[in-house]
Amino acid sequence: MRLSPFLLLFCVACEPGDAVITGLLDPGGKEETLPDGTSQANPGDDDDDDDDDGLADSDGDTYLNQDELTEGTDPYDYDSRIYTGFWPYNPDKEAISDPGFSGGFTPGDVVGRHMGKDQFGDTVDLYDLASPYRQYELIAFNVTIDGIGPGIVVSEWISGGGSDPAGLEGDYHMVREAVEDGSLLWVDMLVDWDGADPNPNAMSNWAADYGFEPVPVLSDSNSHFYEGVVAAIGYVPAGILVRADTMEVVAMGGMSEICAAARDRL
After folding, report:
1. Burial 41-68 (b: 16+ CB within 10 A, else e)
2. What domains can you pick out in the chain, each with its CATH number?
């Protein structure tokens, strides 16, 4: 399905979004703050002195020793971590039953196990966002085409750096604030025209130009979100709102609709 640029511009001028990783505890029971001011939740550990304990975070990179060993990174090297962007990690992701992508993204559907490149070049497993260490209960996906003005407007607004020509701030400022404080995870999902994979540099360029540090910018590999969200809605940016514990879709529509659904559930 090829989307008309006129239809894109006409229908997309109003949408928001974001993502954050904050509000979790380090092994000593204290909140652990990342270099960008956010923090990832780690379960508490009563044994502060035992760095060999799997529940410790010996290098302070927000990932537990046991999780780093599982993923093959060095639990004693800060620069060797599961995700460069400090995204959440879910050691129990295999427990989520992956339905694939044949069922779509309508409310009640479980999102399939998507793998996409992020702005740092890491391959992100979407089911890691269902982390048991998370602070947030909802994940908002802003699905847009690289370079499209309305999608840029939404990303700039959610990052707090845009002029908000769509007027999102008035009705949805609490959504943007929830992204900032970590109580809502926001993800920018980039597709290309006709559902092709975006340019390998698209995610890093988008993050640099319009992004917000706590927001993963992912590629829509294999056109999962293009076919299931953009083609279904008929314009961009479109999106879905998902329960973080089950990856179950609770809303699908334009980004103003997604923001409204998130606002009503925060």
Report:
1. bbeebeeeeeeebebbbbbebbbbbebb
2. 5-21+94-265 (3.40.30.10), 23-86 (no CATH)
